[in-house]
Amino acid sequence: MKIALILGTRPEIIKMSPIIRLFEEKNIDYLIIHSNQHYSKNMDDVFFKELNLPTPDYSLGIGSADHGNQTGNMLIKIEEILLKEKPDVVLSQGDTNTVLAGILAASKQNIKTGHVEAGLRSYDRRMPEEKNRIICDTLSDYLFVPTRVQKEILLGEGIPENRIFVTGNTIVDAVLQHKELAMDKSKILSSLDLQEKQFVLLTAHRALNVDTKESLEKLVNLIGQINEITGFKVVYPMHPRTKAKLDQYNLNISNAICIEPLGYLDFLALEINAGLIVTDSGGIQEEACILGIPCITIRENTERPETISVGANKLVGLSIDSFKKAFKFHQNNTKEWENPFGSGHTSEKILEVIKSQQ
Ligand code: UD1
Ligand code: UDP
Predict the structure, then answer these.
(1) Is 262 in the pocket of ligand 2 (CB under 6 A)?
(2) Domain residue spans in the chain?
(3) Which of 241, 243, 299 to mutate to test the pocket of ligand 1 (most atoms within 8 A of CB)?
(4) Per-residue pLDDT reduced to its tens digit, 222-237
(5) Residues 162-169: contacts with CB under 8 Å, at least 24 apart
(6) What is the pLDDT at residue 83?
(7) Is 103's C-beta closer than 6 angstroms to any atom of ligand 2?
(8) Is the CB of 283 under 6 A from ligand 2?
(9) What does the pLDDT read at residue 185?
């Protein structure tokens, strides 16, 4: 059995890393196809190095472009490789354009496809990721869903039950595999002069928040107030998309320490020690919930409702009033919550399912 792993962006490299490690350990015949949707050193290379991952067998050099152009070029190149390599299974994780291209190319060649982190829905079709999720879930043969919530969603969409496997999310495997290392190795707290639990870790890159001048102005305004509302320093490792948009609209962030995107160990160390995480990222909502750190999500909706129901996360959009209420909620919330995303053995479960289906 030969498996092709297709990835291309920061969160896919991180969330696929436990699967890659397991494939190495078990001597699985596999190859990695990297679209290079992310290509800057601190969005790509740093993760292969830090997470000790093998160099991809194929690097497609796609880079940034409009959706059709980016996805189309990926499709053309991935198709060629799949025709040559003839894998039995293609595995892809998440909801980016790389995942869409990978699963579509494989499915057209009738190669079995596995979608890791299947069944998530924000029910917001303005998000490019939501369109990708729907197409990938409709086409995939094996749908590896994090919790029963996504199983119910997929059943409701008419997907046959025998395609759905509740496995947890590989992000738990990744967090557990790197947590100790991050705490031992990272010097990020001292280098940024931060005290444990006395700072807010912020990230924002979602197209709906940063792409128009109107929403980006609201985001900049909200960020400018977080220090006063919380009394904490605010640290913002800035996604290159947001940096490009701030430059385009000539806007500046105030009252926050803006830094370049970080490697995984430094970022995990910041998450573990943060008093509060503020984000519009999917993976970071999950990580905050897994690590027991209160989270405020600067979106109107989330495809990670488990984080809300356990009390780990609050949705506030870009509203300052809602942010204040959410911060109060977390200040008064002394309850600990259970991590809903699995016990850290998701990669093993996924491999077992794939083997049993061949
Ligand atoms: C993509 C995913 C998003 C995911 C995010 C993870 C899609 C549609 N979006 O968004 O779901 O949450 O990755 O981070 O697939 N850029 C660089 N260097 C890079 C990569 C990007 O400078 O290595 C800049 C470029 O200006 C580029 C912009 O970021 O135009 C956006 O990159 P793109 O890959 O289109 O989307 P992301 O916002 O990264
Ligand atoms: N991350 C990182 N360095 C950073 C910011 C994020 O290593 O500076 C990690 C984070 O721990 C999480 C993943 O990147 O595992 C989330 O990626 P991102 O927010 O880009 O994408 P999303 O999850 O929203 O698709």
Answers:
(1) yes
(2) 2-169+342-357, 177-332
(3) 241
(4) 999 999 999 999 999 9
(5) 164/118, 164/119, 165/349, 165/350, 165/353, 167/342, 167/346, 167/349, 167/350, 167/353, 168/341, 168/342, 168/343, 168/344, 168/345, 168/346, 168/349, 169/15, 169/117, 169/286, 169/341, 169/342, 169/346
(6) 98
(7) no
(8) yes
(9) 95
Closest ligand relative to 280 C-alpha: 2
Coil, helix or strand at residue 134: helix
Topology, domain 177-332: Rossmann fold (3.40.50)
Rounded CA-CA distance 123/216 in Å is 22
Residue type, 90: V
- CB contact set of 18 (below 8 Å; sequence gap of 6+): 170, 173, 174, 177, 346, 347
Residue-level pLDDT at 358: 86
pLDDT of the residue at 56: 98
Distance CA 161, CA 21 (A): 29
Q: How confident is the prediction for the chain on average, in pLDDT?
A: 98
Q: Look at residues 292, 273, 185 and name the one whose alpha carbon lies nearest to residue 235.
A: 273
- For residue 263, give both structure tokens: 């490697």
For domain 2-169+342-357, the question of CATH label 3.40.50.2000 is answered with yes
C-beta separation of 98 from 106 below 8 A: no
Ligand 2: nearest atom to the Cα of 94: 25
Cβ–ligand 2 distance for 120 under 6 Å, the answer no
Alpha helical stretches, state H, 204-277: 207-210, 213-230, 240-249, 264-273
Give every residue of the chain whose pLDDT is below 70, as ranges: none
Distance of CA 229 to the CA centre of its chain: 28
Structure tokens at 3: 């498996």
The one-letter amino acid at 200: V
Nearest residue (CA) to ligand 1, atom 1: 96
Question: Residue 206 C-alpha to ligand 2 middle, in angstroms?
Answer: 12
Q: Render pLDDT for 274-288 as a digit per residue (tens, 0 to 9).
A: 999 999 999 999 999
Q: Are 287 and 171 in contact (CB under 8 A)?
A: yes
- How much is the pLDDT for 111? 98
Asked if domains 2-169+342-357 and 177-332 share a fold, the reply is: yes
